[in-house]
Amino acid sequence: MRNELYVPKEQRLRTATVWPLMVTGRKIIVGMLLKDNSPGVVGAAAAAFASICPNNLSLIAKNYKRLCEILPDVEEWGQIVLSGVLLRYVIAKHGLVKESIMLVNNDLVKHDSEKEDMEPQIATREIRYGINGDIHTEILDIVSKSYLEGPDKYLSQLSHINQDSLVLDDSCITSAKSNDDVKILLQCTLPLLWSYNSAVALAAAGVHWIMAPKEDIYKIVKPLLFLLRSSSSSKYVILCNIQVFSKAMPSLFAPYFEDFFVSFSDSYQIKTLKLEILSSIATYSSIPSILLEFQDYIRDPDRRFAADTVAAIGLCAQRLPDVANTCLEGLLVLALSESSNGDAASLDEEETVLVRAIKSIKSIIKQDPPSHEKVIVHLVKSLDSIRAPTARAMVIWMMGEYSNIGFLMSKMIPTLFNYLAWRFTSEAVETKLQIINACVKGLLRAEVEDMNVQRTIGYVLELAKCDLSYDIRDRARVLKNSILNCMGLQNFEDVKNQAEFRNATNIKCIFGGETKAPIEPFSYRFYLPGSLSQIVLHAAPGYEPLPRPCSLTGDEIGCSTIDVQERRSTGVGSADSEPNESDDSDAISGSLDEENTSDYSSQGSVTGSSNGGGSHNSASSIDGNEEAVPLIHLADGSLASTNKFEESGENNASSLTDFGELMSKRALESWLNENPGSSQSSSDLGHLQRSLARISIKDIGHLVKPKTYTLLDPAIGNGLSVDYIFSSEVSSISPRLVCLQISFSNYSTDLMSSILLSEEESNKGPDSLDQTGSGSDSSLVSHDEIPTLVPMEEVVSLQPGQTTKRILQVHFKHHLLPLKLVLFCNDRKQPVKLRPDIGYFIKPLPMDTEVFSEKESQLPGMFEYIKRCTFTDHIGQPNERDGQSLIKDKFLTICEKLSLKMLSNANLYLVSVDMPVAAKLDDLSGLCLRLSGEILSNSVPCLITLTLTGSCSEPLEVSVKINCEETVFALNLLNRIVNFLAEPTL
Amino acid sequence: MLEKQLTGHWVDRSICAWFWDQILAQGDSLKLVPVIASPTHYLFQVVREGITFLACTQVEMPPLMAIEVVTMVADVLTDYLDGLNEDLIKDNFVIVYELLDEMIDNGFPLTTEPNILREMIAPPNIVSKVLSVVTGNSSNMSNTLPGATASCVPWRKTDLKHASNEVYVDLVEEMDATINRDGNLVKCEIYGEVQVNSHLSGLPDLTLSFANPSILNDVRFHPCVRIRPWESSQILSFVPPDGLFKLVNYRVKKIKNIPIYVKPQLTSDSGTCRISVLVGIRNDPGKSIDLITVQFRLPPCVTSSDLSSNHGSVNILADKTCLWSIGRIPNDKAPSMSGTLVLETGMERLHVFPTFQVGFKIMGIALSGLKIDKLDLKNLPSRPYKGFRALTRGGEYQVRS
């Protein structure tokens, strides 16, 4: 008895380690463990669940309520994992909560009517942006989308405006008030907020942040703040998360600003985080004490921190314009005192504070220049004492920019230019550049003609032309010439025609234009609260955004459909929950349909993508209307990849970063696999990777010729010849069935009648024709008993010389052993053997390269098999195809051949082709093909990578790598691939 | 370096080499970053008394979980070895490995409750060391599984027997205060713990109530505390683990009275700076204040210093930290420290100012004013002995100059 409970706890950890166990087997074990009543076991089971099958949320469905209730009693580590799992489940099952902040501007919710007229939608959307009371809707919008899709995907979508892949309809939204599942989750995670373990509290806070109604989110604030008193390491992590919360919802933390006051013992990272939070939550009531506190920080011995404080003051002033004057005064005093005491020891650190101070002043002034004229005057006056070149440059920029802002400034300008001209030679380069700029601006904006000023400026430009730095010389020449040219005069001094001068549009648009602060694209990245990715700000391997709302539908839950029905019957009683339920049922049928259609379209990608046309170079010119041709998945994939290669797509930046991520992962793998001591090798490898070009092979679809097998030779079959090819179609009856296309040809001189293929021991006569129609229906119902052979339509008669085709759906009991069938023809029995081809026990699984490499990284070690073989197809038949192949690149031909061979022999999806670029002309080493498929019977993904070594003219060595969870299947498939690659095409 | 691989997936040791290279390259600033993204792994770092605990992962996981686990390992090791330093760990390699084995299994925390760990692995002592040397059997794992795993209260043995039934409740408080340059109190709060040391037989059920629970601002509970009674009537009801544990952490905000004042004065002129610091009692708590220390770091621009005090001793440590230990404040005079600081050549005046950290200890009183009303014990075979204590320490008590 005593050990009984301890054992399951251990067992969960074992289950995670038992690799060879079949996936399904492990799922069953986890399912069993989840059903357990003891909290200790449940916590362990949750951990196992998260590590084995995190996406199989249907396992949770059966136990959801009980899991919620038991949550407070589970051991702390289990609580962390379990609350995350439950959150995912609720979102997948019921969708987001309509009162929660995730849907605060209801942007995600697009009603059908709205979809049609997008224009007004964009308009309203813009209005909604901005600060809505106390909540940053814009940020929240990004936050929620990032949570659901992952920020990388979201950010890459920003370029395509309004092309949201994520359009939720009303059925994806639930209400925390009426939905019991949501209510119980929130209730049960509430006590966790007071947990001893900061990780538990943060996990619970994450659940509330996403699911709780807006007005209840405040509950997470105090526990989170209390956590700040724990160790400094966890403090950092918690502050990182609070930072996101406070950015999205400043009002949440605004009353508790005192908790973010910096303590002496905080590390620099924590200090900057606190400053950032403080500057984003400051309100008019709290700003006086915050500014008072900031004043103390400026005197801190850590000058970096002091500089950050100055920047934070600038931010506060921008957020709260009413205090801008106070801030400006303080900053000015600081800048002046800093500049005066910097005279003795010119420490670099002191400079940074000064530079930051002036930068902050600059940004505050920018908001409302006319009212701050005096500040500019003050700064300009003290220009002599400011030493740091960057600071000087900024002051001079301000001088030029605002030279005509008011009476005082325009009065001072002549003197100032004289001063600048005098000092010019002794300035640093960046200051000199700004002086030139300021001169031109001054000239353009001068309201009255002043020969003196013009003369001074001419002098400065002349000086600059003789400067040591070529940057300055160049700029001076360009500016002077453009000024002179547009004046049409030879001599700078006798500027007569001011009007004409002012028309110098090209100069004006450079210098005269109203400078507006560029609206920075919002590039924060948000990841789920409490995740590692949020701390390191990139998606760590294995990071998964929230599941798609309502993606978990009834049919996936399987046995819980009864549960749904139960709930429906209760739902009739209580009217308010009724619409929810009916939506559920809609979703079920809808998703079923969708599944089927998507299967078919992906099918088309392999067989029917003949209209791709065009070389890979022209691909980039076809802009983003990929969706228009859903049939061509192959072309679609290649489009993205060429974009990446040529760096010309609209989502340039994002694709670049994606590429970078891919690279780092590769580097990581190589580091792991090979001797990790030498970092050299990894960087080398990275270099090699960089010189790969991703190409597209598009027009390959129509070239795919599946291999033909003979079932019956005409010599044996009295003139009846039966051939079959494995079709790449997927059976609509059961995923376990393989489709075959069988062609019957009559080579005899007589007419043949009633030709039928059937199972061996079936006693069905040829007359049982009428069953065929209903047969498929009945097989739908009984899922478990899949017939070996779906009865095929009988060939009633076959004329001599005629050929007819039939589709046969077969269930192979084993993927290697042949199936014995009987062929009826003219009432004669003929035993035949149908040999399976393992290459067609899979179906294409379209994905892009990132997904591929991500999945690949999830299947390391035991799930990875490599075999080598030689590929000789490319030699031997050089110029047979009338010169066309001469023009074609050799590399391309080989790529094409190789992929053609793969696709003709196995039902796969070609993900990408990477070609080496930098290497020798003839050297093909590094060519890499990626293909993906999904095992028909259990939908386990199967990833295949071919890597080539050798040169064009010789036999190539191909190393075939398979990553797949189904060990036996993968090994067999590998053997098959190696076999057909090595055997020459006839 | 001590290494333990916890999953089947082998992590190469070179990650540590990478880490040290980074530490050497970037200096101590990296030591304070708890989450580091290396080219191959993500590292979690906790530094305790000069010993760096690293955990590493390649995939997404809650970072706080890693940090908490590592912190807990550090805590348990400190507990087992009576401190934490290189020599202690070297002497007790076996125990450290055994503990790691029990605490983490396949990369997931397993048994982290210190009292249960104690049952499985005996803490080291002289006798066991001698025994292991003599018998050559170096394991001190107990052969039986801890009974607690089977009971409904996983933190407690079912059949505990103590000769003397006693339970001690300690209120340990730390005062965090910040006084700004003008001498105003910016923030003052108390962070407290209710520590219970229980040696009770059987399966006792304890109820602890405070006289003034309303002053508590935030609370955080040990897993043994039942949430419902607290929510309804603010009573702590729990079945205690055996031995010492923290029952509740709490925070009391907006305290107005601070026990000690520190008045620093710095005036600088022509390359030197005069410093004088006065310390005294502001609000007498009624008990004596012991172990008063004032600590501050000299600004980096100070080249040399000459400091003396009229009470206690002044030490300047290696990293320019000045530690003035006062001890108890005498009745007849106010302790003061004064001296001159010589600034870097060319620097006229000091424009950055140090922050003074104050440490103290007051026995017998909880400054937050929290009072324990009563402790009820149920389900006990014999009458227990109950003890209460209180203690206040200086936490982040800092005075800016």
UniProtKB/TrEMBL annotation, chain A:
Biased composition (Low complexity): 598-609
Biased composition (Acidic residues): 578-597
UniProt-listed InterPro entries: AP3B_C (IPR029390), AP_beta (IPR026739), ARM-like (IPR011989), ARM-type_fold (IPR016024), Clathrin/coatomer_adapt-like_N (IPR002553)
Domain AP-3 complex subunit beta C-terminal: 664-817
Predominant cellular place of this UniProt entry's protein: membrane
Biased composition (Polar residues): 769-781
Superkingdom to which the source organism belongs: Eukaryota
Subcellular compartments: Endomembrane system
Keyword Repeat: no
Annotated segments matching region Disordered: 567-623, 761-782
Record keywords, A-Z: Membrane, Protein transport, Transport
Keyword Cytoplasm appears in the UniProt entry: no
SMART domains linked: AP3B1_C
Short name of any one Pfam family annotated for the protein: Adaptin_N
Family recorded in the similarity comment: Belongs to the adaptor complexes large subunit family.
Listed name of the protein: AP-3 complex subunit beta C-terminal domain-containing protein
Upper lineage: Eukaryota, Viridiplantae, Streptophyta, Embryophyta, Tracheophyta
Automatic annotation (TrEMBL), chain B:
Chain ranges passing through the membrane: none
Subcellular location: Endomembrane system
Highest taxon, organism lineage: Eukaryota
InterPro entries on file: Adaptor_comp_med_subunit (IPR050431), AP2_Mu_C_sf (IPR036168), Clathrin_mu (IPR001392), Clathrin_mu_CS (IPR018240), Longin-like_dom_sf (IPR011012), MHD (IPR028565)
SUPFAM superfamilies (UniProt xref): Second domain of Mu2 adaptin subunit (ap50) of ap2 adaptor, SNARE-like
Gene3D superfamilies xrefs: 3.30.450.60, Mu homology domain, subdomain B (2.60.40.1170)
Location of the MHD domain: 164-400
Main location: membrane
Keyword Membrane: yes
Keywords, comma-separated and alphabetical: Membrane, Protein transport, Transport
PANTHER family: AP COMPLEX SUBUNIT MU
Sequence similarity: Belongs to the adaptor complexes medium subunit family.
Protein name in UniProt: MHD domain-containing protein
Organism: Penstemon davidsonii
